[in-house]
């Protein structure tokens, strides 16, 4: 059966060999840096905090190793299946023809679904036979929404391999239309993400053990208290121990951050997607300041991987204006979701010039002489000593609230004082928040 790619869906040109080789070099350098930080970290991993840090280090190193393998596939072409224990398996694909009821599977998909390569590919009606009963409604709903309403598929379900082993599969698909606009077939890609989910659960479980037993409050049950439950109380994000933030500052800047975890809830699954970073840009004293939010569940280890990639891109000379596209390209080679909300600022201390680019809606906020405003719509700005720059993520509705803090921030003697003021305001204005973070940079000279 021919591919669904046609004139109205041109196939992407393969990346240049040199550009892929450069990405491989950056990835391997970053993996070595992360491993060095892991080995230099204090503790033997016998205490709860040490176990949590070790699990998070392992997750980041696993993902960087798999990214290296995927980039090598782009450079070298098809290769044998990845090593055992890989977090990301090779991707399998399938197309189901609705007119003939035929199915066309790639060789990788047979292995992912635990089927013998010589067997007949299953039709869409037969596919649920591989899925546990409790996951079948989810799969049926995804396929029905795709075929009837034309909605893309993006979800996970489990499959049962011969012998009873359960594997978690991530499926992405879309309808393929004929010349009349009717759905002729369904195309999908699938990959086994079992090891990735297992590794992330290890991070989550070790983090939960670090928090200790859940306190009681009143007659009803309560989940373990999250740092930040009390107004204004900031905490360290779950990935904080992996990639260190330069608390000593950067040339010409006094830096501080505040992180507010998800508010405790007995019914809501917590998501940890907010992230921030400050690091050097290649070629001098220029600093990259960035914040963002990684959507979706199980994002605990995702920010650490994203920040590591961001630092690698910055070290390789990528400019802030190029980062939204480069970061999006990097994430396409991982199991992480795309960043829909992020802000990337470059600051040159010699000229005090600020430039920025963003994915989604966030804009940098500038506080000067007791007033604050957003910097959207400008190509750049020149800052002054005493100016306070604020980047935020995870609290899009809080912009007006943050700007209203200008008189109080004018009295802050340091970026750290400003971070405390902002954290308290965010916690008081949105007690039901998901996680959020802010990065403050005060111009010192």
Task: Report on the architecture of this protein.
α6 (302-315) packs across α7. The protein has helices spanning 17-40, 48-76, 107-112, 136-149, 194-211, 302-315, 323-331, 399-403, 406-410, 415-429, and strands at residues 92-97, 103-105, 153-160, 166-177, 183-192, 253-260, 274-280, 287-293, 341-348, 353-359, 365-368, 371-374, 381-382, 388-393, 436-443. It has 3 domains: 17-85 and 197-209, no CATH class; 92-192, 2-Layer Sandwich (Beta-Lactamase); 226-443, Phosphatase 2c, domain 1. It contains 10 helices and 15 strands. β1 and β2 (103-105) form a beta hairpin. Strands 2-1-5-4-3 form a 5-stranded antiparallel sheet, sandwiched between helices. By secondary structure, it is α+β, with helices and mostly antiparallel strands. The protein is 31% helix and 22% strand.
Percent range of helical residues: 25-40%
Total number of strands: 15
Order of helices and strands: HHEEHHEEEHEEEHHEEEEEEHHHE
Backbone shape = elongated
Topology:
Blueprint: H1 17-40, H2 48-76, E1 92-97, E2 103-105, H3 107-112, H4 136-149, E3 153-160, E4 166-177, E5 183-192, H5 194-211, E6 253-260, E7 274-280, E8 287-293, H6 302-315, H7 323-331, E9 341-348, E10 353-359, E11 365-368, E12 371-374, E13 381-382, E14 388-393, H8 399-403, H9 406-410, H10 415-429, E15 436-443
Helix pairs in contact: 1-2, 1-6, 2-5, 6-7
């Amino acid at each position: 059966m021919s591919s669904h790619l046609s004139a109205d869906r041109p196939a992407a040109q393969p990346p240049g060999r040199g550009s892929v080789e450069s990405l491989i070099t950056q990835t391997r350098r970053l993996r070595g840096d992360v491993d060095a930080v892991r080995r230099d970290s204090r503790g033997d991993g016998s205490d709860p905090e040490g176990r949590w840090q070790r699990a998070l280090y392992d997750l980041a190193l696993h993902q960087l190793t798999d990214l290296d393998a995927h980039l090598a596939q782009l450079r070298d072409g098809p290769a044998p299946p990845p090593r055992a224990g890989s977090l990301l398996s090779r991707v399998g694909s399938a197309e189901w023809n609705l007119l003939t009821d035929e199915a066309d599977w790639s060789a990788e998909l047979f292995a992912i679904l635990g089927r013998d390569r010589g067997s007949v590919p299953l039709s869409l009606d037969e596919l649920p036979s591989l899925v546990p009963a409790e996951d079948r409604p989810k799969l049926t709903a995804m396929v029905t929404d795709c075929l009837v309403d034309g909605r893309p598929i993006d979800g996970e379900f489990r499959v049962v391999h011969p012998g009873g082993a359960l594997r978690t599969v991530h499926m992405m698909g879309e309808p393929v239309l004929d010349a009349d606009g009717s759905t002729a077939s369904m195309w999908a890609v699938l990959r086994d993400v079992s090891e990735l989910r297992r590794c992330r659960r290890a991070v989550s479980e070790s983090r939960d053990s670090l928090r200790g037993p859940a306190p009681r409050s009143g007659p009803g049950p309560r989940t373990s208290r999250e740092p930040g439950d009390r107004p204004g109380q900031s905490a360290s994000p779950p990935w904080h121990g992996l990639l260190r933030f330069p608390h000593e500052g950067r040339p010409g800047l006094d830096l501080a951050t505040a992180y507010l975890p998800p508010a405790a809830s007995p019914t809501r699954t917590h998501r940890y997607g907010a992230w921030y970073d400050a690091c050097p840009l290649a070629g001098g004293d220029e600093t990259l300041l960035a914040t963002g939010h990684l959507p979706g569940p199980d994002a605990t280890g995702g920010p650490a991987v994203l920040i590591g990639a961001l630092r690698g891109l910055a070290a390789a000379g990528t400019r802030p204006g190029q980062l939204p596209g480069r970061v999006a390209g990097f994430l396409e080679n991982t199991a992480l979701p795309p960043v829909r909300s992020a802000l990337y600022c470059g600051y040159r201390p010699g000229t005090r010039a600020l430039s920025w680019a963003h994915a989604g809606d966030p804009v940098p906020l500038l506080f000067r002489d007791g007033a604050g405003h957003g910097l959207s719509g400008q190509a750049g700005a020149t800052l002054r000593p005493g100016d306070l720059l604020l980047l935020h993520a995870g609290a899009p509705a809080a912009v007006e609230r943050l700007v209203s803090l200008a008189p109080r921030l004018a009295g802050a003697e340091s970026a750290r004082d400003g971070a405390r003021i902002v954290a308290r305001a965010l916690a008081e204005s949105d007690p039901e928040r998901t996680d959020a973070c802010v990065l403050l940079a005060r111009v010192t000279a």
